[in-house]
Structure formats: C-alpha cells, structure tokens
C-alpha cells in the first residue's frame, strides 16, 4: 500500500488525509471514504501526521479482516461478539459492555470516543461497537452449552487420540443431558441457584436409590460449572455462576486392589493360564505385570519406540498420537527378563489395541475372570501396576527409582536427570528376579 503522503489533499490552506475504503472492506467499514484533518498548513508537517494516520488505519483494516474470518462477516452473534472483543484488544482497549461503561467514570467513555475520532473510525459500525461496547452478547441455551464450550477447548485436545477425544467429550455431553432432564432447556442467563440445588437433589436421589457414587454427581457438577465459567469469561455474559461450589459430600475413593506378588509370579507372568486371550492381549498383560507400565502405554507402543538393538534394550513412552496421563509419564523403560521376551516377539507393537484401551481392559478382565485369575471383582488388569509398585516398596528401591519406573512426579525439588537406563534395568531385574 502507498504511504500516507499519497492521500493528502489541501483544502482552505490545510492538509487533509482522504482515502477510500478498499472494496473488500466496505461491508465492515461503512464510511466509504476516510477523512481526517492533519491540522497542518506546512506540507512537511502534514506528511508526518498523515503517515501516522495511515499506519493506524491500515492496522485497523487488518484487524477488521482478521476479525471477519478471512474477509467474511461473522455469521453469528457469538462470532460478531468475539470479533468485537478481538478488535478492541488490537486497538489497545479492553472490551467493556456499554452498560458497564455507562455506569463507570465519564472520563473513560470520553477517552474511548476520542480514540474513535483520532482514528477516523466514528463512521465504522464494527469499530464503534468494539470501542463503546455495543456488540450484542450471545444468548446460549443449555442445549448449546457443550458445542459452544468446545470451541474454546482446543488447547485441551492437543495431542489426544480419537479415543481420548471421545472420553473427553462424553462426560461433558452426559452432564448437559442430565441437567436438561431436570431444569429444561433454559438460557444460561436464566439458570438460578435453585436450579443448581434441584440438580444436586436429583443426583442425591440417584445416589441413595440407584447406587450411584457421589463422585459421578460431582463430576457432572464440576463439568457444568467449568463449561459455564469458560463461556462467561469468553463472552462476558455476566452469569451468576449458580453451579460454582455445589457438590455432594461423602465422595469415596476406591483404590484398586493389588494382586499378591506370588500370584503374579506363578499365574500371570508365565502366561500359561492366559490362553483365553488373543496373542496381543496376552502379551500386554505380561508386559504390564513385568514392568508396571500402564496398559494404555503398552498398547500404544509402535516399532519406532521399541528399541531392542541397544546396550540396554528399552521402550520409549512418548505422546505419539495420544496424550500421556502426565508430563512425568514420558520415560524410557528398560526391558529385562519376561518384558524383553515379550517385546522381542512383538517388535511392531500391538496395533489391535493401539487406540482402544477400553476394549483391551474389557477383553482382559473378562478373560481373567473366566480363567479364575481375578481373586475378587476388584482385581483388574490395572491391579498389576499396583502390585509392581508394592514390589518396588518391598525391595526398598530409592524414591527416585520408583518415580522413574512408575512415571510419577518427583517429590520435592527435582535435581539432575534421575537414574540412568542401566540403573533402572538393575532394579527392574530385582522386581521379579
């Protein structure tokens, strides 16, 4: 684009900046032509001011283009509202609703009007709405809560596999479905504390009469409160946040019961009693028992992360195509004994269960039960990981070694890089040696 000098015109001895609105922006900036006086009679002085006006105007037009989704006008109230918030931010102003500005100090309102005048934007409806808080707030009904919230949740989905995305979506969709059953499809702004308490009472009845756990109720309440809070902050809805702090007391934590080490050593690790399982599931069970890895970590292994030709054979637990449970879960696990045997036979990993951990658990737990390998219903595939942890404690392995093998966070300040792969292998060999 040309510099500001090209748009100077002289009138009554004073230089004015005059520039037509580009054709692709006429629907966003309705002024037709931007006219701003420099207030200068000297051409050199007018050029300096014109360059500043031109730079501000082009920055404004760029902001309009970005806010209009690549040149298209925002298609919904929510889109237009977010475009106004973004445009205000790009102009160095925090978006504030008009009623808030009207209730605040007059000086702020006057300063915003002066900003519009300085930038020659008094005739631009989108800019006026952004600066003076005139954009219409979105009205969201409960039935639209999740779909609206999902648009602000991209950061939570980064690195998740399709199965992990499904697991992220389903409990939130279920929470919305449940509250709709209780309070109906109200606008979010109309949901009251009484509605929240009615929903809590509905869950209390299910806990008492249908055997549901308090944790299920609190997950619903937490998901709903978080989704409403996210939209409230994003769209400045001014919600009363009626679900905040509403919970059901008495939530129980049911830890998984570990197997007895002798049971694992004699009946699980050899694999002879796992004949009811397909080859991949049987190998994963033995691998979990031998290393304490999470079943999903074993199932997700690919050939690129199975390193057999190394001084210390190992597998690399990495967030490849799926998100790991925690940052500390990313680690290298040495392969010794049965673990090395298993991975030597399955150099390509376990494609059948790579993104199907639920299918793996269901298949394994059913087969373990049929084979008499679940002493109680509470004993599951994941119990093997707890048995592995118990073995490390019984051997009095250093906490840093335990954390490195289990993929747990280091307690206290983390100094150094932790135990080497060779040191981990030494301790792993002791677990079932």
Quick recap:
By secondary structure, this protein is mainly alpha-helical. It is 50% helix and 7% strand.
What this model shows, in words?
This protein has 433 residues and is mainly alpha-helical. It folds into three domains: 4-132, no CATH class; 142-235; 261-431, Orthogonal Bundle (hpI Integrase, Chain A), CATH 1.10.443. It is 50% helix and 7% strand. The chain contains 18 helices and six strands. The strands form two sheets. It has a three-stranded antiparallel β-sheet. Strands 4-5-6 form a three-stranded antiparallel β-sheet. The termini are far apart. 31% of the residues are buried.
Any key phrases for this structure?
3 domains; single chain; 433 residues; mainly alpha; three-stranded antiparallel β-sheet; hpI Integrase, Chain A
- In the CATH hierarchy, what is the class of the largest domain? Mainly Alpha
**Mass-distribution shape:** elongated
Largest sheet: 3 strands, antiparallel
| Oligomer designation | single chain
By DSSP (H or I, 4+ residues per run), the number of helices equals: 18
Q: What share of residues are in beta strands? A: 5-15%
Spatial ordering of strands, largest sheet: 1-2-3
**Might you state the CATH topology name of the largest domain?**
hpI Integrase, Chain A
Distance between the termini: 75 Å
Low-confidence stretches: 69-75
The helix-and-strand class reads mainly alpha
- Look at the structure and give the mean pLDDT: 86
Q: State the CATH architecture of the largest domain.
A: Orthogonal Bundle
The count of β-strands is 6
Domain count: 3
- Give the helix proportion (percent range): 40-55%
